[in-house]
Amino acid sequence: MFALVDCNNFYASCEKLFDPALADRPLVVLSNNDGCVVARSAEAKLLGVPMGAPWFKLRQLAAQHGIVGLSSNYALYADMSNRVVEVLCAFSPRVEVYSIDESFLDLSGFRNLDRVLYGQQIRSRIAQWLGLPVCVGIAPTKTLAKLANHVAKKQPGFAGVCDLTRLAPEARAALFAQLDVGEVWGVGRQINERLGEMRIRSVLDLIRADPDWIRRRFSVVLERTVRELNGISCLALEEVAPPKQQIMASRSFGHLLHDLDELREAISSHTSRAAEKLRQQQCDAGALSVLIRTNPFKSDEPQYQRTVTDPVSPPSSDSRALIAAATRILTRIYRPGYAYHKAGVMLSQLVPRAHTQGELFAADVTEVDRSRELMTVMDAINRRWGRGTLRSSATGVDQGWRMRRERLSPAYTTSWDELPVVRAK
Description:
The chain is of the alpha+beta class. The two termini are 48 Å apart.
């Protein structure tokens, strides 16, 4: 038995939590460089603000209804997410952190429990301790738990907690008949359109479809979804996230770049960040890709984009070696005369350090050990004193190319200097 706990309007809820003046105001959170809407409060949704809408196109609507637009504050969201998970760990010995605002709980050992009451206790604890609203979906499979959570959010009669096992078969069928098949976990727009052509339009239609026929017409993944909708658990709880096969670090610039030196700083910074993630999962990278591009939405300007991948030999997680490889690629693909809008680095062919193959004619093996020890010390210092305390000089000092976040809220929970102040009158 699974429970899915999902924070409501997570980014917007975190922003409202520390600023009472925003409590009843429509609020949106913007993407990098304050470009597009990536999260909305309930009030903004009621006004019809669509996801992905460019902020500059919403200025008139924002002025008319007092919509607040804020830059993404990922440090705040990550910290609040960790606190939610800490609370959830008290409700189940097995928790899978599925995303920054969603977690699965294993309730298989709670047979004698009133699960709806338990779900309400989860909601109440998180609201009381953290001030965040959540909904809970409970079902025998993860796919059904996701669906139950959607029902808990959209139908007020469930009061934020939906346990599908508490519904009679007729009531469950009637509920599924009302839900569009696109609400099922894993059914995206294209699959939804193909299912519609086959007259499979509701969740109930998909439940009644033959799994073998679905596998022949679509894939084994959708077949598994059909079986999960029928109560056959095919997806196990993953308490430890599997290692990533690729690590990507990329950002749009705060302003257009023309100069190679500024691009080199940005690429070095992205490489350093990707290398840090690589070392966290105890891997080395066997290949490195660099991409640069102009802004494709400025069609009146010269356009250029290029991505090149080189092997990293021997495989490494040393920031110095990876930055050197990345800047060599950048020097080859850079072309003057263009206004660059975005750059990125991707590490691939990742292998666990214990399985990294050495080279027959490589330099002294102790050099590899020294490199790893140096990176270990650097990571420890940065964890203790903050990211970037110790870093390569190639990443620059001013970093004027960094993305714009002119509407950024304070780091309420991660900086001593920006702690919220409460005054009692």
